[in-house]
Amino acid sequence: MMKVGCLLLLLSVIVIASTTSAVLLGGWSPIENVNDKEVVEIANFAISEYDKRSGATLTLVKVIKGETQVVGGYNYRLVLAANDNKNYEAVVFDAPWEHVRNLTSFDPIIIHA
User: Fold this and answer.
1) Which has the least CB within 10 A, 20, 60, 101, 113?
2) Other C-beta atoms lying within 10 Å of the C-beta of residue 108
3) pLDDT tens per residue across span 12-64
4) What is the reported pTM?
5) Which residues form the Cystatin domain (predicted)?
6) CA geometry: angle at 92 spanning 45 and 62, to 5°?
């Protein structure tokens, strides 16, 4: 009976550990410095690509906040302020070693204080 209890405990620990690892590997991590040169470059790319696709003429005012996710490259989820006094959430996939950068989404958002 004691062996069955130990086995169940061990199995529980393995399941919890594997679930936690899966969440951490694909999870989003906050960007500490949104003024970093690379982050601003990604933000400008997002706005430029959005302008090409939509015919808009937005320019970046600032990056408000952002997160990254490791996924065979990097996803950047950025909240941007633009010159039209609106905020946008942009998601950009970047794999610089493959010379790949794509705008995945670009949507207006309302930031609640």
Assistant:
1) 113
2) 10
3) 434 333 333 344 567 999 999 999 999 999 999 999 999 999 999 999 999 99
4) 0.77
5) 23-109
6) 55
Instruction: Give the 3-state DSSP-derived string for the chain, with helices as H, strands as E and coil as C.
Output: CHHHHHHHHHHHHHHHHHHHHHHHHHCCEECCCCCCHHHHHHHHHHHHHHHHHHCCCCCEEEEEEEEEEECCCEEEEEEEEECCCCEEEEEEEEEHHHCEEEEEEEEEECCCC
Identity of the residue numbered 101: R
Residue type, 72: G
Amino acid type, 19:
T
Return left, alpha or beta for 27; rule: phi > 0 is left, psi -120 to 50 is alpha, else beta.
Answer: beta
